[in-house]
Amino acid sequence: MKSQVNALLHVWKGLHKDVLSAYPDLKGADLDFERIALYCQTRGEGFFTLDLPHLDSLLLRGLEDGRLTLEGPLSKPVSKRVQVPRLFSGLWLRVFDKGSCLRQDADITAIFFLRQLCCIGKKLLVDCSPDRINDTVGRFHNVERTLRRPTLQWDADRLDVDGQRYSLHLRDYFAHPLTDLPLFSSLREEKTEEEVRQEEEDRRLLNQVQNVADLIVSTWNSFDPVSYSADLESESLGIGFKHGTGAVAERISQDVKSRFYSWSAKLQTIFPFELCGKTAGDPRERPVSHELASRLMCVPKTAKGPRLIASEPASQMWCQQLIWSWLQSQLQKSQFRHFIDFRDQSKSGDMVLQASLDRSLATVDLSDASDRLSCWTVERLFRTHSSFLNALHAARTRYLLDEVSEETSFLSLRKFASQGTASTFPVQSLCFLAIALGCSIHGPVSLKAVMEMRGRVRVFGDDIIIPKHGYARLCRVMDLLQLKVNVAKSYVNGHFRESCGTDGFMGHDVTPVKPQILAVDSPAARLAVVDTSNNLFVKGFWNASDSLRSLLPPRVQRGLRIVGPFAAGYAGLASFSGSDESHLKTRWNSRLHRFEVQLWGTSSREGKRDRQGYEALLDFVSNKHSHERARTVSQYAHSRKTRDGLLWEPLNPGARVNHLPQGIWTRFLNQESVPPWLHDPHYRGKRSHWLPRWNHDNAV
C-alpha cells in the first residue's frame, strides 16, 4: 500500500539522520537517501520487504565467510576497484575493505546501522502473492512425500501391536536407507574405502544420539494422564488439560470447544473421556469416535512466503496441552533442565553474545524443522518410554486437510506433527537436544559426559547452540535423519552468532528492530507503533523513534506519558531521563483516594454472556488458582471491539508533574502522614518538579 511505503520511507529518513549523527562526515549519505526515494517509486513495498533484507543476508554471510559476495538486487558495486555495494557504501567500507574482505577493525556501530537500515521492513506483515503461497504449499507437499515411512503403526489405533518398539534403533537407517532399491541391488558397486569409513562414522554418531536419547528418557516417570492431572489440581495448578487460543479443526468458537464433538478411539485408550473430557456428575456420553483431520492454514510471516500451520481438533489439542505440561515438569526435575527450557529463551541469548566473542560455540538453524521431523525418528528417540510414546500416538492427528491449494486434498501424514500442534515444539526440542548432545560428546555417553556440556549446548525449538567441533557432525546426522540445516542462517567461523532472536558480533548486541506494523489505522496498530518506537529509542535510534512516533495522531501523542527506566509497570514513551507527566491533565479521585492523570489508552468492550452446562464447569476447573488469584468465572466474551481514547489512570509516583489542583492541599493540612515535601513553602509555585515515591494510601 502507498501509505505503508510512505511510512517506511518516513521512518527510514529518521534512521538516515541517526547515521549522520554518528558519522557526520560519511561520504555518499545524501545520495543514498535519493536512491532510496527513487527505489520506493519504482519498486514500492517490495523494496523494503525483499530487496533491502537481501542486503542484510549478504552482510551476515560476509561476516561469517570473511569476504563479501555481491549477488542479487541492490548489490551493484561502487566500481571495479571498490567491490562493495553502492548503496550505503560509506558504511560498507567501515566493515569491508575495497576488495570486499572483512576488515580486522570492522566497525561494530556501522554493522548495527547497516542491519537496521536493511531490516526495517523485513518482518512487515503483508499479503504474499498467490505464486509465493503456492510455492510454499508445494514445498510442504514435497517434503511430506520424501519422508520415511514409520516402523510402528502410527496410522492404526494401537501403536505397537507386535512389540517392535524394543528393537528400534537409529542405526536402522543402514538396514533400509532411502537409496536402497532391492530390484537393483545386484548392480550396486562395492563401496570404496572412504565410503566404508564414512559409514562407520555415521553408525557411531547415530549410536551416540540414540544413547543420549535413551539417557534423557530414563529420567522420566511413567506417564499417567489421570494421576498427573490430579496432582496438578492438588497443587492449585489447574488440571493440565486446557484449550489453546487459536482456531480448531471444527471451526467453532472458544466457548464451545469443551463440548467435544468427537473423541477418537485411539484417544480413548490413553485419555478416557470419562476421566479426561468431562467433570464429575456430567451425564454426557463419549462423543462419536470419528477422528477429524487437522486443517492446513496460512498465517503471515514475511513477504517471501507465509507460515503454514495446522489447526487441530479440539479434543486432540486438549490432550496435547497436558503432554506439554508433563514434559515441562519432567525436565524441571531432571539435570537436563540446564540444556532446554520450553518457555524461556533468554539463556540462549546470553550464550550467543559470549559465543560471538570467543567463537567457541556455533549457532544452528534448521529449515522446515517440524515438517521434516518424521514419525520414524520420533519412535526411535523415545523407544524406551512406552507410556509417553503411546500418549504421543494417541494425541496425534493422522490426517491433514489441505484447503490452501487450488485442489482440496487429504494427506496421511508421515511427519510427527505440523506447526500449530501443542506437542510439536516440546517434542522437536527434545529430539534436537538429543542430536546436539550426541554430536558434541567425545567418547562413551554417560550422565557425567552430558553434564560436561552444560553451558555449551542449548536448544529452543529449532534454534540450536553447540560446540564448534560438533557442527559438522550435527549436519551429517541431520542429513541422515532427513532434517535440513539452514546453512545460510547457521554461523560457525566468524564473529557473528544468531539464535532465539539475539544477534551478536564480537560480544556486542547488533539485533535490529524489525517492526511488523507501521500503519496507524486501528487501536491495536497504534499501540504496536508505540512499542516499536520505544524499541528503536532503547536501541539508540532516537530520530527514527521520533519519526515513527510522529505517524501517530496528535491526540495519541498528547496523551502518552513519559516513562523512565525505573518506572516498571507503566506504559508510555520510553526515556532515559526519568518519567514525566507534566503535560497531562491531573485530578484527585476522591472515590479511590488517589491522584490520576488523563492519558491515551486502549480498552476492549466485550459482550459477555453467562455460560451454563458442564462444559463451562470444565473450563472453569482447567484454570490455575491460588489464595491470591481466584479462578475466572464461567463467562465468555463473544464479541470484542478494541477502542482507544483518553482514560484516567493512576499517577506514576516517580514522575515529574504539573502543580496539582488547589483543592487537594486542604486534604493534607495538619496530617502526620503527609509526605514532607508537601510542607515545603517553595513547592506549590513550581510547575515542573520531581515527585518522590510515596504511599498514596497513607496520604489521607
Element layout with pairings:
Blueprint: H1 2-22, H2 29-43, H3 45-65, H4 89-92, H5 108-119, H6 130-146, H7 193-218, H8 225-234, H9 265-270, H10 273-276, E1 294-302, E2 305-311, H11 314-333, H12 346-358, E3 361-367, H13 369-372, H14 375-381, H15 386-395, E4 399-402, E5 409-412, H16 424-440, H17 447-451, E6 458-460, E7 463-467, H18 471-480, E8 484-485, E9 496-499, E10 502-505, E11 508-509, H19 523-539, H20 542-549, H21 554-558, E12 562-563, E13 573-574, E14 579-580, E15 586-589, E16 594-610, H22 614-621, E17 635-650, E18 655-656
Parallel strand pairs: 1-4, 12-13, 14-18
Antiparallel strand pairs: 1-2, 3-7, 3-8, 4-5, 6-7, 9-10, 10-11, 15-16, 16-17
Helix pairs in contact: 1-2, 1-20, 3-5, 7-16, 11-15, 16-18, 19-20
What would the keywords be for this entry?
3 domains; 4-stranded antiparallel beta sheet; alpha+beta; 700 residues; single chain
Mean pLDDT: 86
Number of domains: 3
DSSP summary, beta strand count: 18
- The count of helical stretches stands at 22
Strand percentage, roughly?
5-15%
Distance from first to last alpha carbon: 55 Å
Low-pLDDT windows of residues:
179-187, 662-700
| Strand line-up of the largest beta sheet | 2-1-4-5
Shape: globular
- Structural class per helix/strand content? alpha+beta
Largest sheet: 4 strands, mixed
**Fraction of residues in helix:** 25-40%
Radius of gyration, in angstroms, nearest whole number = 29 Å
